[in-house]
Amino acid sequence: MDVLKLYGGRMGTSLRCHWALAEAGVQYESVSLNMKEGEHKKEDFLKINPNGQVPAFMDGNFALFESLAINDYIAEKFQPELTGANPQEKALVMQWSVWSGVNLHRFLTQLISYRWTGAKDEKVMAEAKSGLDRFMPVLDKALEGKSFLVGEKLTLADINVAAVLTYNGSNDYDMSPYTNVEVWMNAMFARPAFKAAKEEPKA
Questions:
Q1: Is the pLDDT of residue 55 over 80?
Q2: Which of 63, 105, 166, 173 has its CA 20 to 30 A from that of 55?
Q3: Are the C-beta atoms of 107 and 135 separated by less than 8 Å?
Q4: Are 46 and 52 in contact (CB under 8 A)?
Q5: Are residues 89 and 157 in the same domain?
Q6: Global pTM?
Q7: Is 168 part of any domain?
Q8: CA distances from 53 to 45, 46, 106, 108, 123 (A)
Q9: What is the DSSP string of 145-197?
Q10: How many domains does the chain have?
């Protein structure tokens, strides 16, 4: 059996891949790279992901990058129900996954950029909050009266969107107006697979 390897830590876009693997109950090797030491720019890793970024995924000799593509592959191979139960659900799973990457991810990373720059730029943060003010109501409305974004079961839509919202761990953006989102997030983050995805394996 081919060995599965996921390169990338337990945060950011890599987190959603750890989460998908945990939900699918798949055994894999978790490989953390020392970014400060430039391990993501070394020749061996660039053969896996020529962009020099994480996450990256190996299934035997098959290499894949981009977290949404990795999660789709994981689901298709190991737990197809995560991709949706029919063509309509599959399309909606893709819709919400891409939507969160294009919209929420963009503004949340802008909002927390001070973690890397070391100083808060109030104008940048205000612009990010304004963007989130536009898109968070869309998500809140979509979750009205529902436990999952698509269908009656957990799908990649829930994993991919909820993982993006972990960027707001320091509560730089006030989520309290979005009660449907908060209830859904609490349920998602209480899942055993999410908790497993957040934990570094013991040596």
A1: yes
A2: 173
A3: yes
A4: yes
A5: yes
A6: 0.94
A7: yes
A8: 9, 9, 17, 19, 28
A9: T-SSSSTTS--HHHHHHHHHHGGGTT--S--TT-HHHHHHHHHHHTSHHHHHH
A10: 2
* Secondary structure E strands in the chain: 4-7, 29-31, 56-59, 62-65
Token duo for residue 68: 């949404």
Does 203 fall in a domain? Answer: no
Torsion angle defined by CA atoms of residues 99, 135, 152 and 6, in that order, rounded to the nearest 10 degrees: 40
Per cent of the chain over pLDDT 90 is 83
Instruction: State both tokens at 159.
Output: 């994993």
Query: Length of the chain in residues, anyone?
Result: 203
CATH for 113: 1.20.1050.10
The whole-angstrom separation of Cα 5 and Cα 56 is 8
Instruction: Give the domain range for residue 177.
Output: 82-191
Could you tell me which residues come within 8 angstroms of residue 55 by beta carbon, excluding any fewer than 6 positions away? Answer: 6, 7, 8, 13, 14, 17, 65, 67, 70
Percentage of residues in the chain with pLDDT exceeding 70?
98
For residue 75, what is the domain's CATH number? 3.40.30.10
Average pLDDT taken over every residue of the chain = 94
For 186, counting Cβ atoms within 10 Å of its Cβ (0-12 exposed, 13-18 middle, 19+ buried), the class is exposed
Determine the Cα–Cα distance for residues 78 and 73; give it in Å rounded to an integer.
8
